[in-house]
Write a structure and sequence with these properties.
- With 256 residues, this protein is an alpha/beta fold.
- The protein has two domains: 175 residues, 3-Layer(aba) Sandwich (Rossmann fold), CATH 3.40.50; 66 residues, no CATH class.
- The chain is 36% helix and 25% strand.
- A six-stranded mixed beta sheet has the order 6-7-8-3-9-10, sandwiched between helices. It has a four-stranded antiparallel beta sheet with strand order 2-1-4-5, covered by helices on one side.
- A hairpin with a 2-residue loop joins strand 1 and strand 2.
- Helix 2 runs parallel beside helix 4, helix 3 packs across helix 4 and helix 6 packs across helix 7.
- The chain is globular, with a radius of gyration of 18 Å.
- The N and C termini lie far apart (42 Å).
């Protein structure tokens, strides 16, 4: 399984009636195969714009994005994408929602059934296989959305603040769940979040972006192994890193 993601000198300018807006400028980053990396930044740092470029949904003004050394020129099945909104089909049950991308890709019925069963188990959704989205909690809906993105077994999973709409307790549970899924699947993950503690708990490395325009302000290696336990949040190193990153972000809001 491959999955090395790279951005080289990515710049994006949006043109409008009031002139051009430089959203991100000269961003270099990389996510190694099987690595979990987070992007954090204040408002205006272009986190979601960068993720959209790497997903192939938005074209960069300059620079290049690469997957396994090959240019990204549009959306592709090797990259799964999950947004904050669940985007589930209300008329389909959980199993049918997970199967949707596989059906579009032309997988045969046996393979679809096999993969749906696997990701129902991975995401602990077996009891709700026949439930409709309206019957599920917010956290469960997001688990379905992640399962749907994982079912085609992409090389890279791109997450855009997937837990931003959840309550604090559910959000914490989903963070712990995502770590276990990442360990089990070995998928390369790049996740956008504005939650500093979330980034530290999940990621092996964090890119802190500056604002207006978005640039890489700091690359931080998170000094914890892949087995993240809830109690790590009380670790002195965790709290020191949280304060360091918050200080970087606070400086951005003061400058703006």
């Amino acid at each position: 399984m491959n999955g090395r993601l790279e951005a080289r000198g990515i710049t994006k300018v949006f043109s409008g009636r009031r002139g051009d807006v430089l959203a991100i400028e000269g961003i270099d980053l990389h996510v190694e195969q099987g690595e979990f990396v987070c992007l954090v930044g204040a408002s205006g740092s272009g986190k979601s714009t960068l993720l959209s470029i790497l997903a192939g949904l938005t074209e960069a003004t300059a620079g290049e994005s690469l997957l396994d050394g090959e240019p990204i020129e549009g959306p592709g099945p090797e990259r799964g994408l999950v947004f904050q909104g669940y985007s589930l089909y209300p008329w389909r049950n959980v199993s049918q929602n997970i199967a949707f991308g596989l059906e579009l890709a032309g997988y045969d019925k046996h393979e679809i059934k096999s993969r749906v069963e696997r990701y129902l188990k991975v995401m602990n959704l077996e009891k709700w296989a026949n439930a409709r989205p309206a019957q599920l909690s917010g956290g469960m809906r997001q688990r379905v959305a992640i399962a749907r993105s994982l079912a085609p077994e992409p090389e890279v999973l791109l997450l855009d603040e997937p837990f931003g709409a959840l309550d604090a307790h559910t959000k914490t549970l989903m963070q712990e769940f995502l770590v276990s899924v990442w360990r089990e699947t070995g998928t390369t993950i790049l996740m956008v979040t504005h939650d500093v503690e979330e980034a530290i708990f999940l990621a092996q490395r964090i890119y802190v972006l500056s604002s207006h325009p978005g640039r890489v302000k700091r690359e931080i290696v998170v000094p914890f192994g892949p087995d993240r336990r809830p109690e790590i949040r009380r670790n002195e190193s965790f709290l020191d890193l949280r304060d360091e990153i918050r200080g970087l972000l606070l400086a951005e809001t003061v400058e703006v």
